[in-house]
């Protein structure tokens, strides 16, 4: 019979913390406006610009959604002698001349270099996310300027007189692409 002893020593690791990161999109969209009145064939809008900042702690993936609503001029509605053009028809004669997010030329990268406003709005992929433009990288702490401009096609006829539309830009920051 024998005796034996075993030594033991214990240390604790304290003050360990797990905390979820954040996604936070700061923008000036609520104070910026995109407006053009009195457009005639061949006229171009001013460039609409909004700074989009990921002020969260996680890198994100930016989606941009555009929605259009009719906004015809009451003062001259019906004066053109033609039926009211639809929002989709008007969007089809408005060429996108500038569509950039930071250094990414979205028009070239996603639309082959040319698109109408109708093309951009109809760019739904059929996947769960119905955003018109998806998966633009926006790292934590990064700011990118969103720039957008339109030009009314020279071929736009009298049927578009007094017709108008409102464009709503929705910006969504996701944790992953195609989320």
From TrEMBL:
Short name of one Pfam family: Peptidase_M73
Lineage top rank: taxon: Archaea
InterPro entries: Peptidase_M73_camelysin, Signal_pept_SipW-depend-type
Protein name, per record: Uncharacterized protein
């Amino acid at each position: 019979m024998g005796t034996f002893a075993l030594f033991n020593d214990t240390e604790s690791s304290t003050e360990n913390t797990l905390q979820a990161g954040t996604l936070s999109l700061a923008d000036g969209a609520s104070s910026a406006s995109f407006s053009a009145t009195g457009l005639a064939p061949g006229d171009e809008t001013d460039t609409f610009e909004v700074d989009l900042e990921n002020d969260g702690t996680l890198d994100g993936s930016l989606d941009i959604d555009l929605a259009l609503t009719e906004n015809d001029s009451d003062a001259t509605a019906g004066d053109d002698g033609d039926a009211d053009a639809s929002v989709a028809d008007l969007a089809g004669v408005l060429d996108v001349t500038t569509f950039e997010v930071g250094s990414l030329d979205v028009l070239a990268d996603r639309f082959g270099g040319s698109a109408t406003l109708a093309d951009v709005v109809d760019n739904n992929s059929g996947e769960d996310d119905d955003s018109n433009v998806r998966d633009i990288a926006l790292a934590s702490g990064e700011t990118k300027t969103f720039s957008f401009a339109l030009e009314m096609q020279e071929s736009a006829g009298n049927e578009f007189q007094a017709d108008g539309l409102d464009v709503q830009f929705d910006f969504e920051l996701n944790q992953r692409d195609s989320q």
